[in-house]
Amino acid sequence: MRNLQVRIRRPPSRASDLELVESERPQLTNGAFLARLQWLALDPFRCAADATARDLPKPGDLVPARGVGQVIESRHDVFGVGSLVVLDCGLQQLCVSSGHHARLLHAGQTPVSTALGVLGAPGMAAYFGLLDLARLRLGETVLVSAAANAAGAMAGQIAMLKGARAIGIAGTREKCDWVTRHARLSGCINHTAENLDARLRQLAPHGVDIYVDNVGGELLERILAGGHFAAGARIVQNNVMPEEPQALLTRGGYLPGKMAPEVLRLNLKDYEQRRGEFLREAIAWHGAGRIAAKEHVVEGLANAPAHLLLAMQGGNFGRPLVRV
Asked: CA separation (Å) from 313 to 6, 114, 239, 306?
């Protein structure tokens, strides 16, 4: 059995910067297992030129990805043949793992693809970013960017479930319609077609208490410059390029000593030991139909390069996934 992979030719800006290659079936070693991937998640921030990861992939590297697969051969004490696992595997059909950064699929993560979306890392980031890092309180107003994507949609819905108001920001009318009709947020702003300042003054006249920032860059600076934050506001940054908070706030018009929002950077690794806490509540919400999830799926690894580039340009609608 050959192993189809997607590797990097050069820092990706077009689909041709990635290449499909065939390699030999991975060799199993003691203490490891071999999984055949079923689903792969595409995370643009892991490949972007301004990626926060120190191990930014280089030409020739496998495109990094997290996936769900079934163990087909094992010399591991925990991950036996037939087990479904969630693991860091890269964009490929077959993956050997020592079990590091791997875990068994939770029985409540159904359908399986949710383990890579609302019941996986994006949902967990939204959950702990809001409830632990930002300390969400009843009645607060939460603003969420990329509100139709997995982390953004989950953040908005958690805020609503916890008794807050949630306003989304998205880039098309179709996405905003989904955010208000299916995710049931209080409102959504199409930042490409509407006046962001005017709409924020309309939807959050007393200011924003928490901004869940999934995109950074110009959008964050526009919100800061517009003076849309309430006293005691918090900005939770998830998978955006790190920047010294005071420099960011100064560009937004907040001088040192002036009351400014608190900038909080989410590190999901800090919450790994609390994954069970998130899953207990999130699986119950999802099972009761209280959480909507949007997925943008393509079939086969051959379609992964174009799909990844679309996501890097913000063109995806929902969690970008590959069914292998």
From this structure: 19, 23, 15, 11
What does the block give as tokens for 308?
A: 């990844």
What is the Cα gyration radius of the chain? 20
Percent of the chain with pLDDT over 70: 96
Identify any residues that bridge with 321 across adjacent strands, giving them in sequence order: 41, 297
State how far the Cα of 154 lies from the Cα of 228, in Å rounded to an integer: 22
**Cβ atoms within 10 Å of 273's Cβ, excluding its own:** 8
Please check the confidence at residue 23 and state whether its pLDDT lies above 60: yes
Q: Classify 268 in phi/psi space as left (phi over 0), alpha (psi -120 to 50) or beta.
A: alpha
Give residue for tokens 């949609």. Answer: 153
DSSP β-ladder status, 3-8 and 94-97: unpaired
**Whole-structure pTM value:** 0.93
Q: Say how far apart CA 50 and CA 47 lie, in whole Å.
A: 8
